[in-house]
Amino acid sequence: MEPRDSPLTTHVLDTASGLPARGLCLRLSWLEDHSQQWMELRTSYTDPDGRCPGLLMPDQMKAGTYKLTFDTEGYWRKRGQESFYPYVEVVFTVTSNAQKFHVPLLLSPWSYTTYRGS
């Protein structure tokens, strides 16, 4: 699969260094309708540019609630840096499987920001 074909992507930037957050572990989960339990779909790592482009194949995206969990504590620990947030969870709703979703994360040891990108 070409990463540009994925309906879901993310990009993590380390705002403390001004560089991409390379090697940050993240998990993608989906909330099952009936059981209301999170089902993990994939574990991945950001590439040297801080991106994780191919989180889902185009035919895997369906309407529902998804969660991206970023292991921020592990990321900062590898850099010898203390941090306030051990992980960041971004929960979002997909209403149409025909859309593409980009979920950027701006990260420092003491704060984070996220938004729906394009």
From TrEMBL:
- What reactions does this protein catalyze? 5-hydroxyisourate + H2O = 5-hydroxy-2-oxo-4-ureido-2,5-dihydro-1H-imidazole-5-carboxylate + H(+)
Identify the metabolic or biological route this protein is part of.
Answer: Purine metabolism; urate degradation; (S)-allantoin from urate: step 2/3
**Molecular-function annotations in GO:** hydroxyisourate hydrolase activity
Looking up Gene3D superfamilies in the UniProt record yields: Transthyretin/hydroxyisourate hydrolase domain (2.60.40.180)
Q: What PROSITE patterns has UniProt attached to this entry?
A: TRANSTHYRETIN_2
Tell me where in or outside the cell this protein is found.
Peroxisome
- Classification via Pfam families: Transthyretin
**Which E.C. number(s) belong to this protein?**
3.5.2.17
Q: Which NCBIfam families match?
A: hdxy_isourate
* Name by which UniProt lists this protein: 5-hydroxyisourate hydrolase
Q: Which organism is it from?
A: Colobus angolensis palliatus (Peters' Angolan colobus)
